[in-house]
Amino acid sequence: MKLYEKLADEITEAVRRGVFAAGERIASVRQASQQHGVSIKTVLHAYALLESRGIVETRPQSGYFVRDAAAKALAPASAATRAGRKSTPPQPAPATVDVSRLVLSTLRSIRAHDAVPFGSPYPDPSLFPWRRINQYANAIARRHASWNLIDDLPPGNPELIRQIARRYAENGLPVDPGEIVITLGATEAINLSLQAVAKPGDTVAVESPTYYAMLHAIERLGMRAIEVTTHPVDGIDIDALATVIARQKIAACMVMPNFQNPLGFCMSDERKRQLVELLAAHEIPAIENDVYQELYFGDTRPSTLKTFDKNGLVLHCASFSKSLSASYRIGWALPGRYRAQFEKLKFLNTLTTPSVPQVALADYLRQDGYDRHLRHLRRVYRQQASIMSALVLRFFPVGTRVSTPQGGYVLWVELPARVDAMRLYQAALARGITVGPGMMFSTRNDYRHFIRLNYSYPWIAQAEAALKTLGELVTAMA
């Protein structure tokens, strides 16, 4: 933990314990520097981080003060409440998020020796040109024995930013390169986007089911998720979202309009436009997770929410992890009107994104056949999606239903209602097979008879035998 993070956590804990009350001024920068034996720069970083978390606020020529909302949110239950005094019950819809334990357990099990990775969230790395990218990286490392830290600072490597902007332009979405900020994968882009538009205790609308990494981001930042019904073909129910917005304050809406994980749908242009217009009418930012943007099964790359954004309210997040190199973890964001705050948060959270991977990917995009690689990748995924769908319906009992992915590499499977996905998960793991239990994709313990399967890995005899075994386990439980 960095010194400024430690100091920020200590002050947050002091607010939680009531040492600093709502509206109370905390130590000045110079006082804090002397009290904690750290530099003024460290204190400034810590106070800026507390500001981004919504714990303190600055008042011109007065200093830093504890925000009223933060003090109330962090305060422990009163003695009267602990004694059982009647209090206002919490709203049932927004939920605190705690799916990380199940996800971590699942990811650890995937690492088990020889386990069939149907439950993996990651694409098959053997399909990526990692050797070629590594050659670029090694050549760069040899040319530059050391890097100036300034070269790594946000927004990122200029050539990589130019190459990303060029790809958007070639696919019909001209973007301003000056808006792009390079991040440590899409996960950091999503986390920084949330921090830029919301604070601890705020409610964020998400799809249901939704990708668990998005729930992790909400959990990590102390926010609450409210799930909105999502159609397996049309995407998030815009009317249901409008009802949610009318009933309570929503700080942001986080969605995956293209090849959503786990459902695999791609929202139509009209529904994307409607969603952007609804949120814009209420000044609600949209965080768009578009990590699967290049993995379409159709003839053309789909539009994005960013395409229809006229007000700078869409924070568009993407990465190369699903299409080019998972190991390098290079992502980016187009944060719209929140660009300055996003870049500041990037600097405060991780300072830099390593230069060598950025330059290596920029060199690959400029000199090698990225489009040729993508055409092959899409063809493989499309074929394997068809194979897995057909065999699930063949091996699994009557009542099983599967999604129809329009891109990406995951299949959403609805099992007969009597089947408990967690029991299936344990039974399959005992036979060296992993699956993604449906409860990981909700905060409400929903989708107990659903699983997610990954079809990106080679379709060999072992995979078919594992799917047949999985079908036998489901049949025994149905």
Automatic annotation (TrEMBL):
SMART domains associated with the record = HTH_GNTR
Q: What PROSITE patterns does the record tag this protein with?
A: HTH_GNTR
Question: Which SUPFAM superfamilies would you find in this protein's record?
Answer: PLP-dependent transferases (SSF53383), Winged helix' DNA-binding domain (SSF46785)
Q: Which domain of life is it from?
A: Bacteria
Transcription regulation as UniProt keyword: yes
Q: What does the sequence similarity comment in the record state about its family?
A: In the C-terminal section; belongs to the class-I pyridoxal-phosphate-dependent aminotransferase family.
| Protein name stated in the entry | PLP-dependent aminotransferase family protein
Organism of origin is: Paraburkholderia antibiotica
